Amino acid sequence: MIRVMVVATSPVVRAGLSAVVTTNPRLTVVGSASDLDVLAREVGQLQPDVVLVDLSGNLQQSVWEKLLLIQEEQYPLAMIVIVEELDSIDLETGLRSGIRGILPSTSTESEIVAAVEAIAFGLVVLHPDAIELLSIREKVVANPVQTLTPREIEVLGMLGSGLGNKAIAKSLQISEHTVKFHLSSIFQKLSVSSRTEAVAVGVRLGLIML
Predict the structure, then answer these.
(1) Which one of 17, 56, 181, 188 has the lowest number of neighbouring Cβ atoms within 10 Å?
(2) Mean pLDDT of the region 2-25
(3) Domain containing 166 — which CATH number?
(4) CA angle 100, 72, 93 (to 5 degrees)
(5) Is the pLDDT of residue 98 over 50?
(6) What are the strands of the beta sheet with 79-83, ordered from one edge?
(7) For the packed helices 176-190 and 165-172, what is the interaxial angle rounded to 10 degrees?
(8) Averaged over 28-39, what is the pLDDT?
(9) Structural domain boundaries, residue 178
C-alpha cells in the first residue's frame, strides 16, 4: 500500500485530491495539511511515501525553499506538485528542491493517480508541457563570458541555487534594487526573459554549475 499525504490550502481541494487518490486500491491517504508549515510538523509522524501538494495560486520562490528545507531537516519526501500555469514557475528550481513530479491543474484523475504511483516507485513525472518548456531554453549567445561582469556571474550563480532577490541582496550585502538592476542586465546580455531561462543558458554555457 502506497501512503499518500495531501497538502492544499482549500479544504475542498484537499477533499477532492484525497478522493482522487483513494480511487486506486493501491493508494491510501494517511493525512492532509492546509499548508507547508503543517506538513513540516506532521510529515515525520505520518511518514508518507508520496506527498501530493496543490500549489495553485501560491508560486512564490519561498515555496521551493520551504519544500527543500522540509526535505533536508524533517523527512525525505517524494513530492508531486500541481500548479495552475506551468510556464509561471521556475521548473529547474522546483526539481532541485526535491520535486519528483510536476502536473498542471488541468490533469485528469487518472493522470494524477498514475503520477503518484510512478513517483512512489522512484520515477520522475513531468507533464509533456513541462518537458517542452524545459527543452525550449536553447539560446544563441555571443561571447557571454566576456559580456557578463564577475558580479553578474555571481548573481546568476545564486539564481541557479534557487535564491530569491531578497536572499541574494542579503548574501551580497546590496539592495534589492541593485539585484534587480543586475538581473535586468543579465537578461539582456543572455537574450532571455526569465530567471529560469537565464539559469538554463548559464549552465549550458558553463558560466555556473548546479
Answers:
(1) 188
(2) 92
(3) 1.10.10.10
(4) 45
(5) yes
(6) 27-33, 2-7, 50-54, 79-83, 99-104, 125-126
(7) 110
(8) 88
(9) 144-204
